[in-house]
Amino acid sequence: MRYNRNKFAVILSLLLAFLSLASCDEGMNIKPRSSGEPYDVVVVSPDARVGSMFSRMLEKPLAGLPQDESNFDVSHAADVTTLQSSRYARAIVVVDIDESRHTATRLRYEKDVYATPQIIVYVETPSADSIAADHERIGRSLCSLLGRFETNVALRHLRKSHSPAREKDVEKAVGCRILIPSDVTKTKRGNRFIWLSDDGSKSMRNLCVYSVPGTDVSAERLIAIRDSVMRTNIKGETDSMYMATERRIAPTVKTLRVGGRTIVEMRGLWQMEGDIMGGPFVSHTIVDTLQGVTLTAEAFVYAPGEQKRNIIKRLEAALYTLSLER
Predict the structure, then answer these.
(1) H-helix or E-strand spanning residue 183
(2) Which of 120, 142, 206, 280 has the most CB atoms lying inside 10 A of its own CB?
(3) pLDDT at residue 17 above 50?
(4) Residue 31: DSSP 8-state
(5) Which helix (H) or strand (E) holds 157?
(6) Mean of the pLDDT values across residues 285-314?
(7) Contact 218, 251 (CB under 8 A)
(8) How far apart are CA 282 and CA 269, in angstroms?
(9) Rounded distance, CA 98 to CA 12, Å?
């Protein structure tokens, strides 16, 4: 067989270009997919006591769910050698205890080292006692870091698979922008309100977007607004059945700074008055000072008999895309 030199040269140049792109950080990613489910974490520590401390930090119950579910699901590896079999894990926490190199406990991280998506957090500390003395701060920082990683992974997925048609429905109904998952296709419109759902047979994932006059974002007002809007727009089989906020476990309300914006997050439980339906919800509220209104996007889930953490968390990622841009 004879080679056509010109053709071979073209193929070779294309191959070299491909390899160049594949080796570039911002180019093509040829790393394998990471293993594990969202919110799975492998903790690597040679000290069993330290491993137990990190389990307690990461496995605290997540607020706003009807049953106890931990923030993260933790497994353990005794050392880096053992880690080799788990190096493709989605999230890894490596505890480095060495008093000759570390004078205080600090966290640093790397992304997509062996696989994608992946985060490896290194906890560098002089001793196990240092971790025990500062476990509250370490736990908050670690949970925040791992939580942001999972949210960003969900956002990347959402940006690849969303529904421009439903997003236009939101813009027409409420006058704002938000990314809507491609499988959330059913809609119901009200006055400055829209409800979107995947209408699942075993479980339902839902998003609501609405605006109301006024700029007060106190917890009391946001709960009152939610109850009024949901009572009007989300009813059961009769008018006496309607969605309400569960008050026996008070919703948590906090202010977030995300991308230079102020967001008020509310997390809690909903129930249907006159029915047995219920589940978790989380909402983001922003203030439109030009229009003098508050704008809210809410995710809520109905999934009887199922674990709800991953369902609500993945849906919650859409809330971070809420924008006043028109």
Answers:
(1) none
(2) 280
(3) no
(4) P
(5) helix 135-160
(6) 95
(7) no
(8) 8
(9) 49
Cα 202 from Cα 161, distance rounded (Å):
22
Q: What local confidence, expressed as pLDDT, does residue 25 receive?
A: 45
Half-sphere exposure of 177 (CA within 13 A, CB side): 7
What whole-number distance in Å separates Cα of residue 308 and Cα of residue 302? 9
Confidence of residue 83 (pLDDT cuts 50, 70, 90): low
Query: Tokens representing 16?
Result: 């070299």
How much helix, strand and coil, in percent to the nearest 5, is found in the chain?
Answer: 35, 35, 35
In the predicted structure, residue 14 carries a pLDDT above the cut 50:
no
Helix (H, G, I), strand (E, B) or coil at 60: coil
pLDDT for res 2: 43
Radius of gyration of the chain (CA): 24
Angle, vertex CA 217, rays to CA 303 and CA 179, nearest 5: 50
Tell me the backbone φ, ψ of residue 95, rounded to 5 degrees: -95, 115
Reported pTM: 0.87
pLDDT score, position 15: 41
Return the DSSP state at 82. Answer: H
Q: Tell me which residue has tokens 């894990």.
A: 89
